[in-house]
């Protein structure tokens, strides 16, 4: 029975992640890059500075930094560690280049989807901000049916990408490195998650503001140490990644490239899973930010893709490829689990390597659980009302509790599939509202302190 389910999900996953999705996703990234005048330049020159600038007088629930770290909490997760390793194991080193390119061009899409999330956001009677692809589709395009579709897909996706895969990863790393049985880990994570998420976005943001910078810096330092140890293989690794991104071939350590299609497919899938550009999840957090105008917060949000993929995922990929090339005894062709590859890489650091990896996975995964709990809440509230929020939270915590005993391979496949499906309505919103995005960008990009006086509509439950 399990084999039949796994085979069915694998077939669906292969279909949704075919050429259509790759063209739609990467095509949107390139299209919005052109339409916004290569907004990536502004992300680096202005977005990073704005991300740490407070604007308490602007309307919203949390600071710009709080919204960014909440989004980063959800995006910087096991996809940055295990996901990149899986991409290399299945798609070859070339997948790293496509994952990176998805991130670079994806900055424009993250900017665009966050802009319309803020522009079309609404406010509940008790002062909570609501926004995201569902509201952009409803208010911007009068396509509520598609907004409901997105919300339903995202609501269900939160249990997979945001909860089950992350808790499973925590349980696995605790079991393999600390000898802790898997099942108690799920219960502990569920309790810790419940303490935070019942406090709403402000509670989640407070935790993420402290956790995200620490975990990212801690992990990046570990990667830098390994790259210093593998310094003589960095240039050969870059050359191998570039060559195997387009053509079949092999390299040291059993590294094999399957050619353009498999490298693009795995790179795009892991890139989207990691940075979520185009998926429509991060804009839900952006809509809650205290910001003077949509462009201001859109720039802040777009920095998330830069940090997540252009920096963290790229470093992980380079660490793994240099490690495999340096150690011929590691036969990457026989390893299908990305976590195994990453563990081998970090074991190069005496004593501290496994500790860095263990703490990295635990903190990355736990932060993702918190961020996606908020995403799921907003989506479920959109199509079912605020009265079901308590039920949603209880189910979310139950999934966390039982996740350690769920088959991880099947969960990853389901999460991948839901990612692609929920991206479609979000990309429809971005593409059909591209004129609005261009208009708003021209209006505010050179005067980011200008205030948008358009009143935020108040909705009734």
UniProtKB/TrEMBL annotation:
One of its GO terms (cellular component) is plasma membrane. It comes from [Clostridium] hylemonae DSM 15053. The chain crosses the membrane at residues 16-34, 145-171, 183-205, 217-239, 245-264, 306-325, 351-374, 394-414, 420-438. Belongs to the alanine or glycine:cation symporter (AGCS) (TC 2.A.25) family. InterPro entries: Na/Ala_symport (IPR001463). It is found in: Cell membrane. This is Amino acid carrier protein. Pfam families: Na_Ala_symp. Keywords: Cell membrane, Membrane, Symport, Transmembrane, Transmembrane helix, Transport. GO terms for molecular function: amino acid:sodium symporter activity. Its main location: membrane. The keyword Glycosyltransferase does not apply. It is a multi-pass membrane protein. The gene is agcS. Signal peptide: none annotated.
């Amino acid at each position: 029975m399990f084999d039949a389910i796994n085979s069915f999900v694998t077939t669906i996953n292969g279909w949704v992640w075919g050429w259509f999705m790759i063209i739609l996703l990467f095509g949107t990234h390139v299209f919005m890059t052109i339409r916004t005048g290569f907004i990536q330049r502004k992300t680096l020159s202005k977005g990073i500075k704005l991300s740490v600038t407070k604007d308490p007088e602007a309307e919203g629930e949390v600071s710009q930094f709080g919204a960014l770290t909440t989004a980063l909490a959800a995006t910087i997760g096991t996809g940055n560690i295990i996901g990149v390793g899986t991409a290399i194991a299945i798609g070859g080193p070339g997948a790293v280049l496509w994952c990176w390119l998805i991130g670079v061009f994806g900055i424009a899409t993250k900017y665009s989807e966050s802009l319309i999330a803020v522009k079309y956001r609404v406010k509940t009677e008790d002062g909570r901000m609501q926004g995201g692809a569902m509201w952009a589709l409803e208010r911007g395009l009068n396509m509520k049916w598609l907004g409901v579709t997105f919300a339903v897909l995202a609501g269900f996706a939160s249990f997979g990408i945001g909860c089950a895969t992350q808790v499973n990863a925590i349980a696995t790393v605790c079991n393999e490195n600390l000898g802790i049985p898997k099942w108690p880990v799920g219960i502990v994570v569920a309790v810790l998650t419940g303490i935070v998420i019942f406090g709403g976005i402000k509670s989640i943001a407070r935790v993420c503001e402290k956790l995200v910078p620490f975990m990212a810096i801690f992990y990046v330092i570990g990667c830098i140490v390994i790259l210093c140890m593998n310094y003589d293989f960095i240039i050969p690794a870059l050359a191998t990644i570039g060559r195997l991104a387009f053509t079949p071939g092999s390299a040291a350590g059993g590294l094999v490239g399957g050619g353009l299609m498999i490298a693009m497919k795995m790179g795009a899938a892991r890139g989207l899973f990691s940075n979520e550009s185009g998926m429509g999840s991060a804009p839900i957090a952006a809509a809650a930010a205290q910001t003077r105008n949509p462009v201001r917060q859109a720039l802040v949000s777009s920095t998330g893709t830069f940090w997540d993929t252009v920096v963290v995922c790229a470093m992980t990929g380079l660490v793994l490829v240099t490690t495999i090339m340096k150690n011929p005894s590691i036969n990457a062709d026989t390893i299908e689990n990305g976590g195994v590859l990453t563990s081998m890489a970090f074991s190069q650091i005496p004593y501290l390597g496994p500790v860095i990896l263990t703490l990295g996975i635990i903190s990355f995964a736990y932060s993702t659980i918190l961020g996606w709990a908020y995403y799921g809440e907003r989506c479920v509230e959109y199509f079912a009302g605020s009265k079901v929020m308590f039920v949603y939270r209880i189910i979310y915590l139950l999934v966390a509790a039982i996740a350690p005993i769920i088959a991880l391979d099947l969960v990853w496949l389901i999460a991948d599939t839901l990612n692609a499906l929920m991206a479609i309505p979000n990309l429809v919103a971005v593409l059909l509202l591209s004129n609005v995005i261009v208009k708003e960008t021209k209006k505010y990009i050179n005067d980011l302190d200008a205030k948008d006086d358009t009143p935020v509509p108040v909705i009734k439950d």
